[in-house]
Specification:
Two copies of one chain form a homodimer. Chain A has about 375 residues and is α+β, with helices and mostly antiparallel strands. Chain A contains eleven helices and 18 strands. The model of chain A has no long low-confidence stretch (mean pLDDT about 95).
């Protein structure tokens, strides 16, 4: 088992070799750790900045054992880590953080909303269905229109469709693959916000200022942080973050997506048990960013400060938008973060820019 | 030859796998580059955050060819790169930056001071000697006491001794190994300052605010930046930086160590054709730090802003001082940068901390 607080020089394992793994690896190295990446694809972005790379499937025992041979502490960059992987690592005396419960809750949209409601955190109304008939019945419960999503997997707007009329429910269910689904009532929101927060080994909490997020076709396009919010709204978000982190006995950074309703209430849309795209602004807007914060939390270190030191507009560079790197590099207020991905497929997250400006005087 | 501006996805080679190479590698990766490290020692700190590592001596043709096979642009983390290495890389159509002239000037203390004086930049009075008799004659020219240093190599106070009386000159010469030396008149300085500056491919200059530096036993202990200086002193330093960069037709970041005399004049003590320990404060005190700036400059990118966004006290962690990592991690104002070195030998640079505080209102 990892000896905590984990000392510099030790190796931290990361499941997943994409951009989140890459930025986690860089933060870990800054603190003196070595990093080992487990990733099925060759030439992964995170592997190219890490001391060790293990190539293999996430549920492949041999790959997990190779990771366990170098890393006594393992974390992940994505929520769809197979439960068997966590179990296999744990059986080899490897500490996995965040915990299996956080993964289980985040992997199933019905579990997620049920958990949130059980700790007193509001979500949209929802109902589960695992058959065409069940989908029709769920529609009767929720009312039309409703958003049908597969319970598991699906991200960036994939695996979901609107059901405009109850009569379509069975057909939409089939079109999503006939898998178990959740039906969600629409949220009459005025803004999409998110809160990035961390919980340490001793229960310490660190909560960043909220970001205001703008999606296009289900993919995050832009975040602005700190979001302009009333103290009451900020307090509401902090209370939600604290409830979720404590309720999951969570260790690490979590991303919580929120809907702000016109009456000022916040609903939780989704939780991501990992560093989060809407937290990329912290790389240039805070002294300790979400990546270092996550490493600190899982390593049993004290958490770092979360106050904003600048206002940031974060813009994702999708697909060939990354070709404008030279333009961004020439903007004095723009910090460029590129992920080293070889192939700029349409819509693929290739990098992001943080456009930095001074905080308003009211925020210092 | 490297096609400039170098596009993200290309590979940058770095001679040297220590902490400067490591921090350069991390900055390069943030901009989407891959990095290849050439380093004779195994398990080098920089290699553990780089896509490629070539193990070999800096002047070993096979190692240089292996580097050239992946990197069309090569830079270095230390000034004692053999001239033959640069020649061998250049012969293979690899672009090396900074250039061979900057290396030659920085590798020989007599060349260095002669160059500086030739472009109108002041240094202490000096004289060269390559025999015991020559050392005696040089003392007659400079006067006692004088500081005798080997012309080449020697860093962090190694390879140098004070000559208190002219009569000792021959013996001190022998004690330094009988190698060619420089004799330097003492500088009656009130402060040690430094300026970190960069020059881009198109001659663009970027100059950081000065740091005030404190050495112990010849090793940098502490830097405070931006140093409290008059506008006239800042202007003098900027003029020196511009003269040196332009005079060397320099590409990349340079570190220039300065003596501030009681009459307000600045003398150049030493130039380092690379990122510099007294520039580590920029990692948390500026939007674009010296490492990213160096990568931008050599890659032919536009240079980034250099204005300070915070006041920083940088403290080197030497030898077992690094064992206090947990204390530093618990200080909210302290940013920790550890180098991943295995062995905390006495005096070895194991990491640094940047203690961040707001800029005074006069500096915004």
């Amino acid at each position: 088992m990892a000896i905590l607080p984990l000392a510099p020089g030790e190796t931290i394992g990361i499941l997943g070799g994409g951009q989140l793994g890459r930025m986690l690896a860089q933060a870990a190295a800054r603190l003196g750790f070595d990093v080992a990446i487990l990733e099925p694809a060759p030439d992964a972005p995170a592997g190219r900045v890490a001391a060790h790379t293990v190539r293999g499937a996430y549920d492949e025992p041999r790959a997990l054992e190779a990771l366990a041979a170098v890393a006594s502490l393992v974390t992940f960059e994505f929520e769809n880590v197979p439960a068997s992987a966590v179990a296999h690592l744990t059986a080899q005396d490897v500490e996995v953080a965040p915990n299996a419960r956080a993964l289980a809750v985040a992997q199933d949209r019905v579990e997620e909303k049920s958990f949130l409601n059980s700790i007193g955190v509001a979500t949209v109304a929802f109902a589960a269905a695992d058959s065409p008939e069940g989908a029709v019945a769920a529609m009767a419960q929720i009312g039309a229109p409703a958003l049908m999503k597969t319970r598991r997997e699906g991200y960036d707007g994939k695996g979901q469709r609107w059901v405009e009329h109850a009569a379509e429910a069975a057909a939409v269910f089939e079109s999503l693959g006939g898998k178990p689904v959740i039906l969600e009532a629409p949220a009459d929101f005025v803004r999409e916000l998110s809160v990035i927060a961390a919980r340490g080994r001793d229960g310490e909490l660190a909560i960043y200022p909220m970001a205001e997020n703008h999606h296009e076709n289900g993919v995050l396009r832009r975040s602005v942080a700190p979001a302009a919010v009333s103290p009451a709204l900020a307090e509401q978000a902090e209370r939600i973050a604290a409830q979720v982190l404590t309720g999951l006995d969570y260790i690490g950074v979590i991303g919580i997506e929120l809907f702000e309703l016109s009456d000022g209430r916040l609903l939780v849309n989704e939780i991501a048990p990992r560093v989060h795209n809407t937290g990329h602004w912290t790389m240039d807007g805070c002294e300790v960013d979400q990546f270092e914060q996550h490493i600190r939390a899982i390593a049993g270190w004290p958490l770092g400060p979360t106050a904003a030191i600048a206002r940031v507009e974060m813009l994702n560079l999708l697909g060939d938008e990354v070709d404008a790197w030279l333009k961004y590099a020439g903007e004095p207020e723009t910090r460029l973060h590129l992920y080293g991905k070889r192939d700029a497929k349409p819509g693929r997250k290739m990098g992001h820019v943080n456009r930095v400006s001074p905080l308003g005087p009211e925020r210092r």
